[in-house]
Amino acid sequence: MVPVTDEEGGAPLRCCLRRSVPGERIALVSYAPLRRWAAGAGVDPGAYDEQGPVFIHAEDCEGPDGTGLPFTNAHRMVRRYSAEGRILGGRLVERPEGVDAAFEEAFAEAFADPEVALVQVRAVEYGCFLYEVRRD
Predict the structure, then answer these.
(1) How far apart are CA 99 and CA 84, in angstroms?
(2) Contact assessment for residue 76 and residue 130, using Cβ atoms and an 8 Å cutoff
(3) For residue 88, what is the DSSP state?
(4) How far is the C-alpha of 69 from the C-alpha of 84, rounded, in Å?
(5) Mean pLDDT by 10-residue block, N- to C-terminus, for the chain (136 residues)?
(6) Is the Cβ–Cβ distance between 37 and 59 less than 8 Å?
């Protein structure tokens, strides 16, 4: 990890699910979004155990504040995964009026399928992992 001072701000921080502000110390690290879930579930996600870059705070972070849905400022992909860690499909969530309702609808649709164990919200532009939502 190589910490840097974010001069511009706006980096999507995965540790607290918000954008960085100018002057914060952040780092770009490699992360495998299915790995922790798969280990806890006792499954091998095989080729879906992808790794990619994510931004995090370079120092301790208190995590998400728990209010509202993060990163709804652009089109997103809600990607569905089975209990075996395999992709079951996805849905594009555009940025219409009432964006929170559009995400809630996408999550409800995904979890209406009993095969879906979790979903990942990803950026459309690069396919980057933003966060996951698990079945209760």
Answers:
(1) 30
(2) yes
(3) E
(4) 26
(5) 94 93 96 92 92 93 85 89 94 79 91 96 88 88
(6) no
Q: How far apart are CA 34 and CA 16, in angstroms?
A: 18
Q: Tell me which residue of 129, 19, 41 sits closest to 85, measured CA to CA.
A: 41
The predicted structure's pLDDT at residue 68:
79
What lies within 8 Å, CB to CB, of 79 at 6+ separation is: 87, 89, 90, 119, 120, 121, 122
Quick one: tokens of 129? 């992992």
The reported pLDDT for the residue numbered 74 is 83
How long, in residues, is the chain? Answer: 136
- The model's pTM: 0.87
